Amino acid sequence: MPLLDTASASAAAGSITVNLTETQEAFKNPFKGFRPTRFVNDAGFSNHEYGTVFKHYIKYTDLENAASDSVQKIKDWSNTAWAGIETRNIKVIPRVFIVYPNVGEYWPQGVPHGDVTTQWTSETLKNRLTAFIQKLGQAWDNDPRVAYIELGLWGNWGEHHIWPDKLADGTDRIPLSFQTALGDAAEQAFQNKKVQVRYPETFQNYNFGFLWDSFALIDDLPGGEGIVARDVWRTQINGGEVAYDWGQKHIQPGDSPNDTLSDPNHRNFVIDWIKKTHTTSLGWIDLYDAGNSAVSQGAALMQKEFGYRFVINQATFSGSVQPGELMDVSFQVVNKGAAPFYYDWPVEASLLRSDRTVAWKGVFNNVDIRSWMPGDDWNSSTRQYNQAPAVHQVSGTFEIPANMPAGTYTLALSILDPYGYKPSARFANTNYYTGGRTPLGNVGIGMAPANQNIGPFDSLKSDNTLSYSLTQTPYDGGYSDGGSTDSEAPSPPANLTVTGTTTSSVSLTWSASNDNVGVTGYDIYRGSSWAGSSSTNSFTDTGLSPNTNYSYTVRAKDAAGNVSSASNVVNAMTQDSRGNDAGTVYEAEAVNNTRTGAAIISECGLCSGGSKVGYIGNNDGALQFNGINASAAGTYTMTISYLSGEARSIQVRVNGAAPYTLNLPSTGGWTTIGTFQTEIQLNAGNNTIHFSNPTGWAPDLDRIQIAAGSHNGGGETDILLLDNFDNSPSWPGANDLGKWAGANGFINNAGVIEAGALKLQYNNDGWLGTNIDQSIEEYSKMVIRIKGANGGEQNKFQLTIGGVSKTLGAFSGDTITTDYKNIEIDLAANGVDRSNPGQLTMTFWHGGNGTIWIDEMRFE
């Protein structure tokens, strides 16, 4: 048990102070330590006594082959490759590569290669990599399985060199232009994950960490000195691996992992560099023989030096608290490791019952564990930092619930992974309970504590019970009645229904769940993200974007923390910016749909969800959309988004009624999306829509959209649509007013349609134009729905219409942001000839480079 400060412990009803002891154990902790590697052809993640973070080499073409491949492809691959690692508390450092010498080359389609002197410097490769990094950000920046990112991609092994080969200029390192392109892309794509690069002399203008892949080799000590000089360790992660396949290893750091760890001279040399460079994790050296006692002892010594090592010296807390009153908790912590903890994880105080189940818990406010810095300026002679680590004082005041039963509880501390809010990063103290908590002492609630016996303690190293979740849910602090005796989850909510939408909100209702004790509330999820909680059977999700499709599920929970499985899925489309109901989108590949026969889901880069359903018809395959919700019985407009290289028919059956046939024209190809509208009769509540074809194959289906009342192709009759870039008509051949006069000169040629928007990449060049052969006098403004890669692009290109030429910024007085927004141009105020507008053009040769996406152009 901890040693008590006798003076303060004697006043049991007052405060109690305890002094804690640092453990001598080496143990697993997130992000840090020996870092195993999952190589190209490995089928899974190996077991390692200290390994919680794994480097993963990933072939580029596993994630993207065609430029049109969707972000969903990356997510699907990740879900397969990393399935279940959250249950083992493992996180991944992905490194995507194109060339892995002596293993293979994985160049994506459309990227020229074959000449090693030039293949790494083409503009095509640069543009492809920057676009791909954006996809990686969308897939991984909020994935809790990803620890941080090795930027990789360029060069052999993705190490930013092509040695022993040379580029055309005689060098072998990543050129400055690629450093800038990839660096800008990574800064934008990864807002929540740290990024590492290979060499400290590269990416000089970026705040990235470093991976020293020849760590502590006597032949490459300038690499380590360069990392020390860059001095980024306070906010960026340093790591690497000890390369045992080159250099004068027999001098330092040893010929093998066993040699390094068993020989104190070699081991201390590596530890010196861990401390100098503030290294968090290290690979290759992890391949030691744990069965060799000398090696194992050396590994334990080194494991304690990596990354952070938080030790609680002393804690003071209220000895007894009345229910409904305040409990004070404070503690002193010092980081005896080599690096900080780089993510903002909460610190929790909890009160445990005698069986160690949690009776109450709450998090400290205004505590940032990233500020718990280690020492600095390592002294190899004294084997200490010349600048000793600071001792941090943490304090919190917590209100104990009024309904908490009187009794003696054990106060414990823990650091939580925000994904699941489970104890994860552990303090290095002998006081330890299996499950990740550090007990301090006993607190009496409504009475003096019965005693201060909080032992026996458990081993940290042998505890493999920790895990995290894949979704981030709200913290569920407070009093938990009944402990672990209630293990039965509520029934899932039924009949989830959309009851209304606005431009920025969706309202939902559902049937109540049942529970053996009682349902305390419901958590609502927008996609996989928590949207909010409700204590009733209804909820309104606010702060949404106009004209956007959202999917929802609901889970019930009880007082013991048991959570039900998810309800049925519903989709809702917010109203457009004018308050009109744009309808609800239902994806063909949605999991709650029913596919029979030959019908299959396949990837579709241009489709709205990244997938489509094909092989419908031929008296075999069929697709039924389930859960089509209608607020009232009546006539609705169904817009079918489909792909077909030829005219084909499809049979429709609503709610099991008699089928009827629609004849759908060709969309121009099997990679081109078209739309077809028809009216259908729906019942109030949930409906089904069944697609088949008894006489031949039907088109491939992307999605359907259900809206009340009748619409034209462009929407309401009070607008004149120029183009909404849904590829119907197909870009760049035509638009909704006629024909584009041309589009050329962009980095991506004439631009490309990406997720229903026109993507234009420009570098002081590029032009597009269309003739407007009709009067637009009845319209007062032109609206361009647009976003930019960085924001602020409104002054980088010029718009000409009705005899007036200005930058978009000068026309509108508005700015482009990184999210879609409607930029409005007052036609009359700008002197635009609306009776004879002539040619509308956009030109990009006025200086500057960047990327924009245009979602829609219209007149209102």
Automatic annotation (TrEMBL):
Residues 492-577 form the Fibronectin type-III domain. The keyword Hydrolase applies. Residues 471-500 are annotated as: Disordered. InterPro entries: CBM6, DUF4832, FN3_dom, FN3_sf, Galactose-bd-like_sf, Ig-like_fold. Pfam families: CBM_6, DUF4832, fn3. GO terms for molecular function: carbohydrate binding; hydrolase activity, acting on glycosyl bonds. Keywords: Carbohydrate metabolism, Glycosidase, Hydrolase, Polysaccharide degradation, Signal. The keyword Transcription regulation does not apply. Residues 584-707 form the CBM6 domain. Residues 475-484 have a biased composition (Low complexity). It comes from the Bacteria. This is DUF4832 domain-containing protein. The lineage of its organism: Bacteria, Bacillati, Bacillota, Bacilli, Bacillales.
